[in-house]
User: Fold these one by one.
Assistant:
Number 1:
Amino acid sequence: MEYGTARSVHISELAWPEYDARVRDGKTPVLIPVGALEQHGPHMSMNPDVLLPTAISERVADRIRALVAPPIAYGYKSQQKSGGGNHMPGTTSLDGLTVTSTIRDVLKELARHGVRRTVLVNGHYENSAFIVEGVDLAQRELRWDGIRDFSTVVLSYWDFVTQEAIDDIYQGEFPGWAVEHGGVLETSLMLHLHPHLVDMEKVCDHAPAQFPPYDFFPIKPEWTPASGCLSSAKRASAQHGETLLKVCVDGISRELARAFD
Ligand SMILES: [Zn+2]
């Protein structure tokens, strides 16, 4: 992808007439990666929740002739049982209302440009309900403006990892997506896509975090492993990352073609 050319999938890299020409008829889907600034253990940068859905969106857009909006780089507060908790240094979060309002505003702006097919590609578990609320508010307000054909797919990329890939990578020791924070999935994808942002020598090899079947507030920091990760990334590799990227891009491309059919 070359900066500033008409072939770019990034709407921010297009001049407005080119963008206008590509979205005006409403047929071109626009993918919006939604991430977070959140610690991911001592071995990795704090931006995988932004970089991973962005990388996946770029490849999907290339395949289905879609565009990618700039990612939303902050997300809802890290929860202890899925992201280590919002008490960790570096983790920088938005209130739910802010996430919801941001999603609503961006969708309504895209609609004003003529876009009618949108996809929110989530990279941070905690965002999920606030994304859905933003979509609902946007669609409600667009209906008030007489726009009834604006559609949105909401997805989290890890839901497209196939059982076959899970069996291959985890060898029967898959801990579940909730405790994959800073674990094999994200670390492998980062090793494949952005290896300079990972230091495998700093991986803390510990058993998956165990939590009671409830949340407790204010949180008990001692519930979170000292590393900030909820499972070990020891098994991570660039090769697994390549596999994970492929199944996500394949699955999302296939399902979007079906959804917008
Ligand atoms: Zn993450």
Note: The two ends are 27 Å apart (CA to CA).
Number 2:
Amino acid sequence: MTDPAPDSSTRAAATPGVFGRTVWVDLTTGDVREKEEPASFHRRFLGGSGAALHYLLHEERPHTDPFSPESVLVFAPGLLAGTQGPAVPRYVVCARSPLTGALGRSEAGGYWGPELKRAGIGALVITGHAAQPSYLFVTPDGVEIRSAACAWGLITGEAEEAIRADVGDPAVRVALIGPAGERLVRYAGIVSDLTHFNGRNGLGAVMGSKNLKAIAVRGKRGLAVHDGVRVKEIARAAARLCRQHPLSRLLTDQGTAPGIETNYAAGVLPTRNWRSANFAAADRIGGAVLNEKYLVRRGGCYACPVNCKRVVAVDSDRIKVDSRYGGPEYETLAALGSNCGVDDFEVIAKANELCNMYALDTISAGMTISFAMACFGDGLIGPEDTGGLDVRFGSGDAVLTLIEQIARREGFGDLLAEGSVRAAAAIGRGAEANVVAVKGQEVPMHDPRVKTGLGLQYALAPNGADHWFAQHDPMFATETSPGVRALEPLGLQGLVQTLDLGPPKVRLVWHTSVLNSLYDCLGVCIFGAVARSMTGVNMFADLVAAATGWDTNLRELMQAGQRALAMSRLYNVRQGFGPQDDVLPSLYYTPLPDGPLAGRHAIDRDEFAAAVRLYYEMASWDPKTGLPTAGKMTELGLEGLLDAPPG
Ligand code: SF4
């Protein structure tokens, strides 16, 4: 288990520290104000994305330019973040996404969210535009706006060092942007401790637009909870189960990288911009080579018994990779590896390091580069467009050069910094056919043709293609599948086949999308104990009751998950999104092109459309507008939000 600070064992703490106060920072005026939200607020919204969506919906006008001073940027740790609960370190960043124009939402684990909670803060709501590059220094005594002249323009590692030196505290936790965020790359991310990423949706660019380089946090040791003894009991029991469970041990021993070999063997590894699923060099870029040749150590997050992260180093004649920047996970190995046709692990590790140094989302970076490679191969662009660069599949040099160009908005990289959808529109000549995105966000590295529920996730997630909007189909397919036992208390007792797209699959996606929404409010990592059936979901009701002192249960918590989901839907409808945007890329309506599943598993359009309609009915979303019905909003206590939005 990694470095948890002790929970206070004080029983019945007057105001448990898990709540935290809300701090508003206006970077234009320098105004900082704070308040304790009432107990009813915490009980309704919990924390994380529930709290963040409340502030977005109340404080930002629809259609606000994400790069304008009026855009609202919220950082909010999950309700349980900072406790010793098992694998609950996560915090969310929300704002209108500059990539999609829809809800921008990105969670990260690590230590920063728990540190913010231990500084007494449940949400940071940031608006305005600082006249000079700035960073926030957050302590239990308050929030201070400081000059970031020492760090602006620097890569993340150097900037983190500069801010720690400026604060005079080497242990301060720093979430920051790199040069990509400063230059408003539409898929720039935010990184803390150089390895934990809020990667998706371009929220690092929103920070950059506000001239905000970083948020440095120093909290107190420990966090007062209602019943620290009970929290520790639950955490110890979950940690014991994690150590015993084979799936959890596999994540600890191997991390996520073996997904490369697994998906290759299954015939579904995204390859050359999804034109193939048959990357014969998979064994050169997957879990075996990472763990056997390049692993320096395992990494993890606050109070997590799993420790699934990998830290790698490369020190060859050609390539050096600094272990401070962690190591590539499955998504990165596929997006910047097989999907760009690159079969050299050292190049992918370097690409991952560059993305971390510049703070770029590795999925959108890899997918946008693979889009460009597809256009290059099709003759839609040539050397005259790329500044002479040979942008062909398999070129590691092209991948590394383009990451540098994108992050600095130089040359051809300036166009790719806009993301694949905007780049395709600028190129024209049918380049749109090479885009694989939903709501403007490039898809992650999982093929929905063999996981139909994942296809629903891609289509329905408010933040664009997202592989954790709900849970993955294979977890519920056989008696021994990892998700089956954990979710029985939700009434999901039957098995559901991975290729099924009928009512049982829609029911599974509906319930697990609510559950994952709850996880986002609580700060739960999906790789933790519950998702793999080591314990059931009722554990969270026990944990929330112990941390807060509430007499709560799973039903109340799932209602909170539904509340956050309904708010995200409302946010998107206010931005002009609706049912027409809940669609899959047409690629997935065609069969797999090659490999062991060649010619099979095209998703049926009519069946998929019927499944989306059924999900709408379960969620009580209006099929014409996409809005949650007035009845659903009333059930969730959100009826006031159906009145005129702010502005
Ligand atoms: S399972 Fe992995 S990502 Fe999740 S909290 Fe633990 S170390 Fe972090």
Note: The chain has a mean pLDDT of 94.
